[in-house]
Amino acid sequence: MGFLQILSARKVYQTPEGSSVQALDDVTINIRNNEFLTLLGPSGCGKTTLLKCIAGFEDLDGGDLILDSKSLRSVPPHKRPFNTVFQNYALFPHMTVEQNVAYGMEVAGVSKVERDRRAGEALDLVGLSGFGGRRPTQLSGGQQQRVALARSLVLKPKVLLLDEPLSALDRKMRETMQIELKNLQHAVGITFVFVTHDQEEALAMSDRIAVLAQGRLQQLDTPTEVYDKPANEFVANFVGTSNMFAGTVASISGDRVILETGNGRRLAATSTAFRVGDQVRLVLRPEHLTILARDETGDADVPAIEGRVRETVFVGSTMQVHADIGHGRTALVSHPHTRRGSSDIAPGAEVRIGYSAASGHLIPMRSA
What we know:
- The chain is of the alpha+beta class.
- The protein has 2 domains: 4-237, 3-Layer(aba) Sandwich (Rossmann fold); 241-364, CATH 2.40.50.100.
- It is 23% helix and 35% strand.
- The protein is built from 8 helices and 20 strands.
- The chain has helices at 47-55, 97-107, 112-125, 141-153, 171-188, 199-205, 223-228, 233-238, and strands spanning 4-14, 20-31, 36-40, 62-67, 70-71, 82-85, 159-163, 191-196, 208-213, 216-221, 243-253, 256-261, 266-270, 279-284, 290-291, 305-314, 318-326, 329-336, 350-354, 361-364.
- Strands 6-7-8-3-9-10 form a 6-stranded mixed sheet, sandwiched between helices. A 5-stranded antiparallel sheet has the order 13-12-11-14-20, with no helix packed on it. A 5-stranded antiparallel sheet has the order 15-19-16-17-18, with no helix packed on it.
- A hairpin with a 3-residue loop joins β16 and β17.
- α2 (97-107) crosses α3 (112-125).
- It is globular and about 75 Å long.
- The two termini are 26 Å apart.
- The mean pLDDT is 90.
- One of its GO terms (cellular component) is ATP-binding cassette (ABC) transporter complex.
- Pfam families: ABC_tran, TOBE_2.
- It comes from Pseudotabrizicola algicola.
- The complex is composed of two ATP-binding proteins (PotA), two transmembrane proteins (PotB and PotC) and a solute-binding protein (PotD).
């Protein structure tokens, strides 16, 4: 049983045209105490709606929210032991940093001596000691985000809800704040529920990721499981980049599965979840594919995929190689970059692409 349970949550919005939109469709998630859970998905998937329902800003149309075995359905937002960090930080520009952090305590009737002490501790926690007398306009975006965090943490919530708080930061600052947020969550020891549409952000920060699409929960698992073993085609395509091949399981030997695609290509993977004749999709991440040297044979019993380089994209540590592999298909290979480069993978070059069967992941051929 989870510390915070979302049970069969449903939410429907009526549109101005008279139709309805199912924002949440039977979503169940057991959130653990002291974990960093990320709600991940594209725009309109229901992740922000779910966060608002947890906070109490929106009412569920069905299902329940249970905290420590007690329903929250009738509990107003200001009485729920949660705090929210918004995308725009929502700081008061006429107040100092210290006054912003202490504002919630002042409303709650905490004495000034206690407010000052706790505000100082909170600012120290987020690395802003000595900034208490400044105005928000005198701070950088990353510093303002830290103030918003301090203001929420100073009230000692059981759960901190974060609605895309890093989206306004530049890439370098965002990467820095990802590490700081994760470290902060460990330091304060409370549950973080984080909303984002950024897959890399979710993979870097989370203990678990809840992937949502069209109001439904697609997968709930650790970052490595979500990436290495996506539950369905939507997750495979949304979280990271995938090469995907549809086919029929032709033979099985132990955990080694051979599938045959519609154009006769035979590919391999390892799994114990399928039978001969099952319709499946093989998921191969670009980093699992290798441009073979002329004298390399690749994995035993897995024929190399023949192709012709269409284009290459330099992205720093790797070269993204787009290769035509016939029948209208393109394979994406993440090829290690060397300073010397390689004429063997220039556009137009004939290449052989290999992979290990153990790196292939099979999913049932059905829609998400």
